[in-house]
Design a protein that fits this description.
The chain is α+β, with helices and mostly antiparallel strands. It has helices at about 35-50, 95-105, 165-170; strands at about 15-20, 25-30, 50-55, 60, 70-75, 85, 135-140.
Length: about 190
């Protein structure tokens, strides 16, 4: 992919796999690159190709701005059927957190949220605890999946992502995975 948003692959770049529907886009990113620039890179890649809705077989209209794109992460890297959640870097810090941060005078350990990450996550893949070849999902308001209306629906945890399986291609039933291979114990 040519353009101002692209990152030239090097030994230090990571590959992130960004998924929506049945589409996966591979992006070379710097581990310290901001999520805003990753969204811009993703938006450029989508505008140079297209995102196809498998149900209607039509192109999905892209958002006007990369900032409208939301990124999510798997709830459990080892269980893709567990679904995905909005990345903590997408959630703006609340006013309460900002006012409390200004009051403290001593050194304290950062608070941890439900996901086990510090309350203030750095705006980059490495700071967010991602790894090379991790999977993120993406969506935006008006993408045709209807997630805006069904936020509490348990089915919505998949973000409209259709995970590929062996059965799709070969007629053999096999569980999908996100490529996070298990640890070798020997």
């Amino acid at each position: 992919m040519e353009g101002t948003d692209s990152i030239k692959p090097s030994p230090t770049t990571w590959i992130l796999r960004l998924k929506a529907r049945k589409t996966t886009i591979f992006l070379h990113v710097d581990p310290l690159q901001t999520f805003a620039s990753i969204k811009s890179q993703l938006h450029t890649a989508l505008s140079e190709t297209y995102l196809l809705d498998p149900e209607t077989n039509k192109n999905v209209e892209l958002p006007a701005s990369p900032s409208e794109i939301q990124l999510g992460r798997p709830i459990d890297r080892m269980d893709p059927d567990g679904g995905f959640v909005l990345g903590e870097w997408e959630i703006a810090p609340s006013d309460e957190d900002e006012s409390e941060a200004g009051k403290s005078k001593g050194k304290a350990k950062p608070k941890k949220n439900d996901a086990g990450f510090g309350s203030v996550v750095k705006d980059c893949p490495k700071g967010a605890g991602l790894k090379d070849r991790d999977v993120l999902v993406f969506r935006w308001p008006g993408d045709g999946t209807g997630w805006e209306d069904e936020e509490d629906d348990p089915k919505n945890r998949m973000w409209g992502v259709k995970l590929a399986s062996f059965e799709d291609s070969y007629g053999v039933q096999n569980e999908a995975d996100l490529g996070a291979g298990g640890e070798f114990e020997g």
